[in-house]
Amino acid sequence: MSSSWSHGGVHNGSQNDPEKGLYASTESLVALPSLAHVDEKSQVYIETLRSQFSPIHEGITPSSSVPVLSLSWPGGKAPKPPAPKPKPKPSRWILFQLWFNTYKKFFTFVILLNLVGIIMASLNRFPYANNHLGALVLGNLLGAILMRNEMFLRFLYIISIYGLRSWAPVCIKLGVVSILQHVGGIHSGCALSGAAIARWLIFKIVNIIRHRNTQHDAVIATGIITNLLVIISVLSAFPWIRNKHHNIFERHHRFIGWLGLAATWCFVILGDTYDYTLGVWRTDAHALLSAQELWFAVFMTIFILIPWFTLREVPVEVEIPSAKVAILRFNRGIQQGLLGRISRTSIMEYHAFGIISEGRKSPYHYMICGVQGDFTASLVADPPKAVWTRELKFAGVGHASAMFKRGIRICTGTGIGAALSTCIQSPNWFLIWIGSDQERTFGPTISGLIHKHIEPERMILWDSKKRGGRPDSVQLLKDTWESFGAEVIFITSNMQGNDEMMQGCRAAGLHAFGTLWDF
């Protein structure tokens, strides 16, 4: 089952080749296209060569009408063609820089900061920790939640874009974008067990158990339960679980996390209303309201609930141009660089996809869902009429493109879903899209959006099926960087392609941000 729609202003017929003037192609032995590129100031014409020889192009062997004498090689075998030159290996320093990125720097800093605090508290050199262990526990939890909250991250992007784009030098902008892209390191640093939260929790529980003779059993029990729930929730978010068993990750990280939040409330209320020095329960509200732990718990709850308040079931139209891809169309336009989460149910199996839109005033926005797992396969096999989504979209690194004067957006395959809006909504961004049989795989809607809004001189569409292979993407980026005058490159690709381009850009001195896989 498939459906298609007509898009206002999108051409569904044949499109001009967007690569004319960049990569020539030969259809005949006697003629070339008469016009390579039309410039407003001048026109460059290619004169037809009337010769016995066909013009030489990439991948084409010159042919001649002159008889050729056939000779045999000694031994009857022709020599093997020379092996292609191996690509230069990146230096160890470049590999280390890419490995120890800002994400890991944040992660390491948060872990070390917490470990230093724990050691100082154990040596009685940190009085605040001894008196407010619960506040340190919940402070880490709140930091982890904030770094994954859609509203908070959108706020960071807004103040960064509007605060820097008109005056800041490129080096400052690059540093800020790196921070915005890698704030997940703070999330992981605050949340991973054995590093921050779990050790503060364990430290607090051990401290309570040491005073078990005067501490109430209910406080001890809720403390242990909270500790266990938080550890399970954090362990379920390890990459090898999250990437290979997404549903297991989602169930445990979300629902066990919610139970952990409820247990935290019980722990905070019981711990702050029981006076273990006197062995009595305090009934006055002032003792509870003046506790730091209570307000940490309040803000944790608020930031967890805010995205869920924007949850809606919305109508969707599905176009299936091929068995590999489903194109989802939603109502209303959206600004560039945002991603959305969708699900068939209200609270389970949310998956994030890049959003394509012509602008805020556009009637529609789109998501490209490549078939990779059960959820995306079901979109092709059983297209839905409606899906659940959060109206509050979250910002990807591409959202920071508004900070730069000119840039390059390179993507492979379904990565066009995260990249296209930037180049549609800004005339100062160059699109490079590498894929196989793009027109047939992704259909007329995506092709129409590209050709309607992006000029041929501002894009390279590399069809590896037509061209017989993938390009040298690093060389392509170098050439485009020089000719377009770019300040930055944003990459959306699989892990192998991302690593290759990031290493090449770093070696060439090009400023690039790639796809991030949390470790």
Automatic annotation (TrEMBL):
Keywords, alphabetical? Membrane, Transmembrane, Transmembrane helix
Q: Which InterPro entries match?
A: Adenylate-forming_domain
Biased composition regions of type Polar residues, renumbered to the chain = 1-16
Q: Tell me the segments the record calls region Disordered.
A: 1-21
Q: Does the keyword Membrane apply?
A: yes
Residue ranges crossing the lipid bilayer per the database entry: 106-123, 155-180, 186-206, 218-240, 255-274, 294-311
What is the protein's name according to its record? Non-ribosomal peptide synthetase
